[in-house]
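Marked as duplicate of an earlier ticket. Keeping the data here for the record.
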Amino acid sequence: MHRRIGSGGFARVYRADDPELDLAVAIKLLRPELATEPELVERFRREAMTAARLRHPHVVTVITVGRLEESFDGAGVGTPYLVMDYHPGSLAARLAATPVLEEGEVARIGAEVARGLAYAHRHGIVHRDVKPENVLFAADGRAVVTDFGIARAMEGFPASANGGG
């Protein structure tokens, strides 16, 4: 079972249940009308590779990537997708419901986002699109940075610098 939970100019996101892992997941699927554009398919592939390299409590975890083997919601066979951890809430939704957050909560969220971004930076990745819609909340309440779609690898960053946490 799946349901669409988000849509942007580049991709659609669905919430689904992975029966093999007994886990709720989010599936990001390149928009069908863009799946025939090689440059955009490559950009989507780069996002998946970028995000998949990052393993940190404050960065969304990519579980797998692939291409559709059958049509789905208007997307044809071969459309690229990535599967990541599902996080039920976003900072944007929280701010829409409660425009003024407690000072301690703001500090905690800011620190957690900063930790996730610092980890990405240590791995040579600059997010470039940090906004409330790209800060999710895990079931335990921790802030998680998502959507590395326009991230850029830092030029000249040593490929062997994969440490840090």
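See parent ticket for discussion. The longest helix spans residues 103-122.
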